Amino acid sequence: MGWQDNDKNPWGGQKPPDLKEAIEKIKKSIPFKIPFGGKYGLVPIIVVVLLILWLASGIYFVAPDEAGVVKRFGEAVRSTTPGPHYHIPVPVETVMKPKVTQVRRIEIGFRTIGDRQLGRLRAVTNESLMLTKAENIVNLTFIVQYKIKDAIAYLFNVKNQDKTVKDAAEAAMRETVGESEIDDILTTGKFKVQQDTKAILQKILDGYNAGIHIVAVQLQDVHPPAQVMAAFKDVASAKEDKAKMVNDAYGYRNEILPKAKGKSAQITNDAVAYKESKIISAEGDASRFMQILAEYRTAREVTKKRLYIEMMEKVLPGVDKVIVDDKIGKNMLPHLSLGRELDKKINTK
Amino acid sequence: MKLKGKIGVIAGLIVIFVVSLSLFTVDQTQQAIVIQLGKPLEGIYGPGLHFKVPFIQQVMTFEKRILVYDASPTEILTKDKKNLVVDNYTKWAITNPLRFYTTVRNENGAQARLDDIVYAGLRVELGQHNLSDIVSETRDALMMKVTEKSAKRAEDYGIRVVDVRIKRADLPEQNEKHVFGRMKAERERQAKQYRSEGEEESKKITAKADMERTIILAEAYKISEKLKGEGDAKSIKIYAEAYKKDIEFYGFIRSLEAYGKALKKDTKLVINLNAPFFKYMN
Question: Does this model's pTM top 0.80?
Fold first, then answer.
């Protein structure tokens, strides 16, 4: 084809001269001879460039949070790990890069409207109302978090993966709730409901070979249906009432018992005081008596007389006295109008 | 040279065109059959590159993945004559595209058929159980049974029923009202119980406290009387021991003391002049 024949003008003025010069320049700047040109001019170069570009299009990068799955004519042939890789370019091979570390989230019983941080929620009651054991109804919302466990299984085994997880989650939750008492679900059994639902859900999805790993099933809002909410709340306040009554009773007890103990201490202390004072004063009296007695014994008559006279002397001045002589007074005494004198005294007061 | 080249290019394009018509690919998520002049041929094509005769052969592709058929909720009567609104879904897959194509044609046709099969299975199975069993105990076993039955019947259509699952099984609205009424009554009973329990406990506690208080005070009284008694006894003993040394003198001195206390101001006293005090007045 005379490709080496570079000196001939290959374009015959068909192409703009500036391009021609540029090509010449490129050719001259390359130290070896380029096997292009000749009669076909630029076409082979374009073909080669396109070929190179086409081959280069097979280079792809798998990001750290992705897994690469290469399909050859539609058939999955290999999976690749994060990093740079090469596949035969389209249409022979194509690559799919699902995000395998990303945790996806499904809301059941409610939907977040707009931004999740703002937290505006819309209830979906036909998803959230469910029957519990003994035919009670509970209103329950939850979220399911899942991620891809096996990229190939995830991509090729089940259509509509999100809906699959959601449907299975609803079935699993209702199965769990159907086996639980409403009081457990509302109070202490929440963790168990989550765990059981997660286990059942995982089992269902594994049954479909869905390549999905359930990260968590999380109850959001669990409460009785609106129609019976008031009654449930009243039970809660009745519980509070009960606790309050008991507390009040203990309060009463705590008030009266220490008081009683205090009073008890007071009574016994008073009694001790009485006892001691009784004894001490007795001892005092006794001691006094003994001392007087001792002196009295040394001079009986004198002492007796003295004590008597001193007493009379002390007593008589204040007393209203009537002194009667035996010799005269024998007949007089009955006439003494003691009564009248007394009356007068009372009236003048 | 130019003409030859042109012819070459055109010939090449024609070849590429014909080859492209005789080649087809099947995706990993699909399976295919080939139809020749309207008649499906034997053979199922899996993922990859395949050949066919151009123009007279057509390719029909079908899903290979598990599909879902989500039936609309239906009311089903249970054994204990209660209505239950059952919302179920069926997971199914096309296992034999050839038979699938000849019997139900496409996914829509399959869903209509599945609806019949699954609904019949559910109705029969749920009709044999009480509501509480369906909701609580036997749900899983029951669904497995329906799945098995449906799978057997769906085989004829080249369909594999993977799973029939009751998504929701709820009471119809009018029955829900009864349930709410009952739940309410139950809660009211509980509330009453809590309140009367509170009263009971509170009374027990206060009564016990009152009792303890009474006992504490009585105990204190007992101790105090004992102490006082001891004091009294001891003092009596002390007095007796002292005074018995000279009873006569004690009588004298004590009497004097008593006179002093008894004869206060305004006491009227009639004294005989013979009293020893006046001895020297006579």
Answer: no
